[in-house]
Amino acid sequence: MDKVLDQISDYAVSLNYKDFSAETVHEIVKRVVDTFGCAMGSYPMEPPRIARAHALEVTSTPGATLLGTRHKTSPELASFANGVMARYSDFNDMAVGKKAGHPSDVILPILAAAEYVGGSIQDAMAGMVLAYELQDRMGDSCVGVLDGGWDYVIYTAVATAAGAGRAMGLDKEQIANAMAIAVTSNVATHQTRRGELSMWKGCAAPNAARNGVFAAMLARRGLTGPDEAFEGITGFNNQLRVKLELPVLGGRNGQFTIEQSRFKNYPCDYEAQCCVTPAMELHQILGGTSDNVAKVEIVTYTHAVECSADSREKWNPTSRETADHSLPYCVAVALANGTIWVDDFLEERISDPKIHALMQKIEVRATEELDKTWPEAYPFIVTVTTNAGEQHTREIHYAKGHPKNPMNDQEIATKFRKLSESVLGSEGVDKALDVLWRIESLPKISDVFEPFVLDASNPAARS
Q1: CB 328 within 8 A of CB 359
Q2: H/E segment holding residue 99
């Protein structure tokens, strides 16, 4: 096997839950709580409904639990459907790596893989730590992947293959084969996130995770993958014109990356949500109204422009997917209303003529100076000029949820409650949180899903 497969598979089999500190375990649990909350917030939306309907057509023994039910579907379909629920509202955490996406996309798929083989919660948590390491480190090492027009979900596929393999108890050779299968068959284009965005934007990473779980399942049964998947003549490095070089991975050289991922406090693209706080502060300065705004100038770093202000569609969004990846839209909503939440991305809100008029007053540009501070910081300088010529400026470098501006346990629980209460009810939220905060002590993985089972009378259960 090539040296990348050798390095990662060696690291994978060395990871042991018993070696994790109490702090590391708690950080894993926080991300599990956050991910389940995001899944409940997206539960009634159309793409999660579509994914669930497809998963319900298959019954598998052994299988994996479809969130919101006691139905056991195939692990791949549980990975996809549960993953779409967690990902779709764009509220789950952000990677440490420069262009590495959303590492919590791996959490529910790894639980599905572990449940399928009767694995332990502890092995699943070790798999999550491994997957976070790979997704983050690949993003840092391979910025040329996105720059070349490919999508970050290739990292999700590889990370999930390795993490699911670890959760299922695969050996070194099997984990290497799982990654080889995943990396050679899951190179996706970045068109998913360009122009007017479609429903697929929130499904691409769950699909990659589904394929990663499938690769691990095949490797478990003995299927082999190319032994030079990364370094071969037409392997990952040469085809994508990068050179993947992984550093000393977490636990051997300081913190694990799972302890550093960025939580989201608002339901939108990370770059867009960073800009929400200064816009909300300016809303207060302007007396709670945007009626007198003549111009809004946003100065930031280049990657923010590439993600959230890259085309005219971001100034004229017509879909949820484009709106939550639009700096102009998110800033306009926060500036006009003083807040932003999941319901601000409903069709009737997106088409609000007042918000659209305000968006046209917004200019976005990047500077070399701010580029130098990213990705350590996520800088935004927002200046509003009023019709009277007055100027007001607010600046942010670390959004709420960044390790330098962290969300504590209570804030994570509050976010979970706000997202989940309309589906689970107040008492149901209490029960779910009680289970999730002690997930590491649960006897079996299916116990994690039990508080989320919806009664047939619940409208969300029929969606």
Answers
A1: yes
A2: none
Per-residue pLDDT tens for 117-140?
Answer: 999 999 999 999 999 999 999 998
The residue-averaged pLDDT of 145-156 equals 93
* DSSP for 246-303, written as a single string: --SPTTTSS--GGGTPBP-SSSS-HHHHHHHHHHHHHHHHTTS--TTEEEEEEEE-HH
Q: Which residues of 261-298 are buried (b: 16+ CB within 10 A; e: fewer)?
A: bbbbbbbbbbbbbbbbbbbbbbbeebeeebeebeebbb
> Hunting for tokens 């009634």 — which residue is that?
44
The residue-averaged pLDDT of 59-65 equals 97
CATH 1.10.4100.10 spans which residues of the chain?
A: 3-259
Token pair belonging to 348: 């009737």
- CATH number belonging to the domain at 3-259, selected among 3.60.15.10, 3.30.420.40, 1.10.4100.10, 3.90.1300.10: 1.10.4100.10
Q: What is the DSSP letter of 57?
A: T
Q: Where in the chain is the domain with CATH 3.30.1330.120?
A: 270-396
Given a contact cutoff of 8 angstroms between Cβ atoms, the answer to whether 342 and 89 are in contact is: yes
How far is it, in rounded angstroms, from Cα 83 to Cα 155?
15
The domain defined by 270-396 folds into 60s Ribosomal Protein L30; Chain: A; (3.30.1330)
**Does the pLDDT at position 279 exceed 80?**
yes
Provide the pLDDT for residue 252: 63
pTM of the model: 0.96
CA-wise closest residue to 74 among 82, 83, 65, 85: 65
DSSP 342-374: GGGGSHHHHT-HHHHHHHTTEEEEE-HHHHTTT
Question: Tell me, what DSSP letter sits at residue 66?
Answer: P
